[in-house]
């Protein structure tokens, strides 16, 4: 049994223009000590997927269906009280937008300490000492002074590190990290990625890492799940995915990444884009979700939705024309 | 030579922070401590550096979002740091911003249409309500959002979509300079490519200048003309992008470039790990501010502050290694990749 098993997760939002099928039947699992990266176009449902696992989606307008089994228990069936005991303790989350998820009127020391007092019963002094230790770990200079400061006094990257400190404080078994390093410079980023690896080794934590940075994915993930328009369209071990992307969307994604060294290899012109736009999630989609932007789409694609199919060992993709490895007789 | 669009001269911004628990003497965060640079019309200058080194503070000073401690911010020959209200109003139109955190910079209760219409009206850029609508629609097209989405509220968009709204809002004022503070960091790869291409197109068409603050060095390398590297409130290196990426002259820049994760699983690269204490801007180290972590620091670095000096190719760097004979300077070898 995997530590986290998500089955047929659906998250729909009621909106004035119809039901937004933000996440539409996504299944995946994460083993203990494993890092699964989720990548995909903006708006494809990565954050909604992760927030719904922790039941942080307001219902209504949201509506969550499916199963989210953590260590065998379906989180979607727990009471609010049981859920609160898990959140921030066994499972913690680093949110995408640090400024909106930190409380502006509490010092950062209080905010880190809060979790520790709530879940680990530390007293105020011990919680503050631990808060200082956590800030040191995430590389914030002068932590004794910083614990007394408010979020607006910190730079963007420092706020993000405060969020990370809060998330790591209780040694979670599952860490969900939504763009944890976007606001960080690469040297600090390397340090944070080390901290996440360390958490894996020390407590066997599983990590779900959402990021647009394919460099980070290549560096820390074991497996990658690619989402598009609320669905999973491809999943594979990291090396396999980078060397043999099988879904045209994944191929476009990998092609659009600028690489360091572009100024030497001749005058850089334009970055490759994936032309077109994501389909509206409030209207039913006929056929393949990517057909409207896919260079190789045919009438087959526009009519029938391709199923997720095993294309190589541990490698699934949802495309009618994705190459399938010949099965050894 | 033509006058640069933006000149920043010896800019300082020191934040006063409260004294100790019982009053005590006040102390300051030396967030930006003597920074000078220029941005030409139609040019992109990127500002990179460690988190907390003062990049956003420079950006906010350029936007005149607060009073600076000292120095000058000059737009098109006009001093902005002590400008009158009237000059400021036009300045506010000519210099726009796109921030890193799109959610907190959009009013959650305003529909997208109103968000975009506000600057158009404030700066008197349309004569009728029909003209406002027409411009709003054009802006939506420009940033690749469906026109029907103008009726929605910010929380009904994904993070990346919200960032496109912020960019549209900045463009609405028809600015000459846009300060992009981590403007594309939250975007996915293909939208990032679209927005970067869009910014470059707009730059070509409108002669737009960009002050581009970013941690994404591959993007910076792709789209910038020049790069300025900051460390703890000061510039340590300024150079055209080829010079900087091919042959960085400052040890900090080298460490920074070596830490960029490559999109190739299993790629092995030699990373320069910075050891030593991360100094605080309240108490910056004497001498070279980087000496506590610099792998090349020597005696002089601990006592004397290096100045920005020019090398061939309009390549400025502030490091005492510059004064060593060429054969002894480890910074003159190109980067091994
Ligand atoms: N409260 C809400 N009400 C209505 N729709 C919502 C709400 N929250 C999210 N959505 C929609 O759900 C979809 C998925 O959003 P989500 O934030 O998960 O995207 P994402 O993959 O995390 O994108 P990004 O990479 O930009 O962060 C989007 O179409 C968004 O508009
Ligand atoms: N309002 C404020 N009061 C006190 N200190 C501040 C304030 N705003 C910023 N600072 C401090 O000034 C320094 C520079 O901050 P700034 O936001 O400019 O950094 P940055 O280079 O943009 O970092 P990042 O890459 O993390 O966004 C930091 O030490 C920060 O804590
Ligand atoms: S001046 Fe000295 S300490 Fe500073 S970067 Fe150069 S070698 Fe390193
Ligand atoms: Mg998201
Ligand atoms: Mg900043």
Could you describe the 3D structure shown?
The complex is a heterodimer of chains A (329) and B (337). Chain A contains 12 helices and 12 strands. With 329 residues, chain A is α/β, with parallel strands linked by helices. In chain A, the strands form 2 sheets. Chain A has an 8-stranded mixed β-sheet, with helices on both faces. In chain A, helix 4 crosses helix 5 (124-137). The longest helix of chain A is centred in the middle third of the chain and has 18 residues, at 186-203. Chain B has 337 residues and is an alpha/beta fold. In chain B, helix 3 (112-122) packs across helix 4 (129-142) and helix 4 crosses helix 5. The model of chain B has no long low-confidence stretch (mean pLDDT 89). The complex binds adenosine-5'-triphosphate (2 copies), iron/sulfur cluster and magnesium ion (MG) (2 copies). One magnesium ion is lined by residues 46-47, 96, 178 of chain A.
- Counted by DSSP, the helix tally of chain A is 12
In the sheet with the most strands of chain B, the strands line up as: 6-7-8-3-9-10-12-11
Biggest interface goes to: A-B, 70 and 69 residues
Number of strands of chain B: 12
- Kindly report the name of the CATH homologous superfamily of chain B: P-loop containing nucleotide triphosphate hydrolases
Rough shape of chain B?
globular
Mean pLDDT of chain A: 89
Q: In terms of per-residue confidence, which ranges of chain A show pLDDT below 50 for 5 or more consecutive residues?
A: none
By DSSP, the count of extended strands of chain A is 12
Helix content of chain B: 25-40%
Distance between the termini of chain A: 30 Å
Q: Could you say what the CATH topology of chain B is called?
A: Rossmann fold
């Amino acid at each position: 049994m995997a530590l986290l098993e998500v089955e047929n997760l659906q998250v729909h939002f009621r909106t004035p223009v119809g039901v937004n099928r933000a996440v539409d039947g996504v299944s995946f699992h994460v083993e203990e000590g494993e890092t699964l990266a989720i990548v995909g176009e903006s708006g494809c449902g990565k954050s909604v997927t992760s927030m719904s696992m922790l039941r942080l989606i307001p219902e209504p307008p949201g509506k969550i269906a499916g199963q989210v089994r953590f260590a065998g228990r379906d989180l979607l069936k727990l009471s609010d009280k049981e859920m609160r005991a898990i959140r921030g303790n066994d499972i913690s989350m680093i949110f995408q937008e640090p400024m909106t998820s930190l409380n502006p009127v509490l010092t950062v020391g209080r905010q880190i300490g809060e979790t520790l007092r709530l879940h680990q019963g530390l007293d105020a002094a011990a919680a503050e000492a631990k808060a200082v230790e956590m800030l040191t770990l995430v590389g914030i200079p002068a932590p004794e002074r910083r614990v007394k400061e408010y979020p607006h006094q910190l730079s963007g990257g420092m706020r993000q590190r405060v969020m990370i400190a809060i998330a790591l404080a209780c040694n979670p078994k599952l860490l969900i990290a939504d763009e944890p390093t976007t606001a960080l410079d690469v040297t600090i980023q390397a340090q944070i990625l080390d901290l996440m690896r360390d958490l894996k080794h020390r407590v066997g934590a599983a990590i779900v890492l959402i990021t647009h940075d394919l460099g980070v994915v290549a560096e820390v993930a074991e497996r990658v799940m690619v989402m598009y328009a609320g669905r999973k369209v491809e999943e594979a071990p990291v090396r396999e995915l980078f060397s043999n992307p099988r879904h045209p969307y994944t191929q476009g994604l990998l092609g659009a990444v600028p690489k360091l060294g572009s100024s030497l290899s001749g005058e850089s012109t334009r970055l490759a884009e994936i032309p077109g736009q994501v389909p509206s999630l409030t209207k039913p989609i006929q056929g393949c979700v990517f057909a409207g932007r896919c260079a190789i789409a045919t009438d087959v694609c526009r009519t029938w939705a391709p199923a997720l199919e095993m294309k190589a060992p541990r490698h699934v993709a949802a495309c009618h024309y994705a190459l399938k490895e010949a099965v050894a007789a | 030579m033509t006058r640069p669009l933006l000149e920043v001269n010896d800019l300082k911004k020191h934040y006063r922070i409260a004294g100790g628990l019982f009053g005590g003497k006040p102390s300051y965060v030396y967030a930006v401590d003597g920074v000078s640079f220029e941005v030409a019309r139609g040019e992109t200058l990127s500002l990179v550096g460690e988190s907390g080194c003062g990049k956003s503070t420079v950006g906010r000073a350029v936007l005149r979002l607060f009073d600076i401690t000292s120095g000058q911010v000059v737009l098109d020959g006009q001093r902005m740091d002590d400008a009158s209200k009237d000059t400021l109003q036009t300045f506010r139109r000519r210099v726009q911003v796109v921030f890193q955190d799109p959610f907190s910079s959009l009013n959650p209760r305003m529909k997208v249409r109103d968000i975009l219409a506000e600057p158009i009206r404030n700066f008197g850029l349309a004569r009728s309500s029909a003209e406002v609508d027409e411009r709003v629609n054009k802006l939506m097209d420009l940033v690749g959002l469906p026109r029907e989405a103008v009726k929605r509220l910010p929380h009904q968009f994904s993070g990346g979509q919200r960032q496109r709204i912020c960019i549209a809002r900045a463009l609405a004022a028809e600015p000459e300079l846009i300060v992009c503070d981590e403007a594309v960091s939250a975007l996915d790869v293909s939208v990032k490519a679209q927005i970067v291409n869009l910014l470059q197109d707009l730059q070509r068409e409108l002669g737009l200048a960009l002050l581009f603050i970013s941690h994404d060095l591959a993007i910076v390398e792709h789209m910038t003309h020049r790069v300025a590297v900051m460390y703890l409130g000061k510039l340590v290196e300024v150079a055209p992008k080829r010079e900087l990426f091919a042959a960085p002259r400052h040890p900090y820049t080298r460490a920074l470039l070596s830490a960029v994760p490559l999109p190739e699983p299993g790629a092995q690269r030699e990373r320069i790990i910075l050891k030593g204490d991360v100094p605080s801007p309240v108490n910056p180290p004497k001498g070279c501010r980087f000496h506590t972590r610099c792998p090349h620091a020597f005696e002089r670095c601990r006592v004397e502050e290096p100045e920005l000096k020019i090398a061939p190719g309009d390549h400025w760097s502030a490091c005492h290694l510059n004064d060593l004979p060429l054969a002894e300077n480890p910074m003159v070898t190109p980067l091994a990749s």
